[in-house]
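Task: sequence design from structure.
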């Protein structure tokens, strides 16, 4: 990372004010993320915030431009296996297309992995596309098993 980039790009937990800094637009670079109102954002934010350290959304802010350039989230699954162990699930990692190539995604992954370790998780897992496999391997992940999914049509039809 370039000189000064460490202080220019700050990783922190999501705040309500991040709605105005383009959080939903950033997520839309990753997947389907239709616009939501500030009230909807605040309602979901409060639900997540109530989960404390069991669900953390982090963002990376460009402090010079006052905009968000990366995000990711982690939720902690409490299990019966491994002596009532915990597993961290990383989700929704995206770096703004204009800010890629500066290791910002790696810093987001480090923040989320450090959080998982600090709350006692015995491992962190995530799903990714084959195109992103190399990135996650460079972050220390190894391929394990196979992902399966079942989708439910819960989104309203597009207009």
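Answer:
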């Amino acid at each position: 990372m370039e000189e000064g980039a460490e202080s220019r790009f700050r990783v922190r937990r999501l705040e309500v004010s991040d709605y105005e800094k383009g959080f939903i637009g950033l997520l839309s670079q990753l997947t389907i993320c239709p616009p939501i109102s500030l009230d909807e954002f605040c309602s979901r934010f409060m639900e997540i915030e109530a989960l404390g350290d069991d669900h953390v959304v982090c963002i990376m802010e460009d402090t010079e431009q006052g905009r968000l350039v990366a995000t990711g989230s982690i939720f902690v699954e409490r299990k019966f296996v491994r002596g009532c162990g915990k597993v961290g699930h990383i989700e929704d990692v995206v770096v703004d297309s204009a800010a890629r190539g500066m290791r910002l995604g790696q810093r987001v992954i480090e923040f989320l992995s450090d959080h998982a370790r600090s709350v006692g998780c015995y491992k962190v897992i995530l799903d990714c596309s084959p195109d992103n496999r190399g990135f996650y391997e460079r972050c220390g992940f190894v391929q394990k098993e196979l992902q399966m999914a079942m989708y439910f049509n819960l989104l309203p039809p597009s207009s």
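The radius of gyration is 16 Å.
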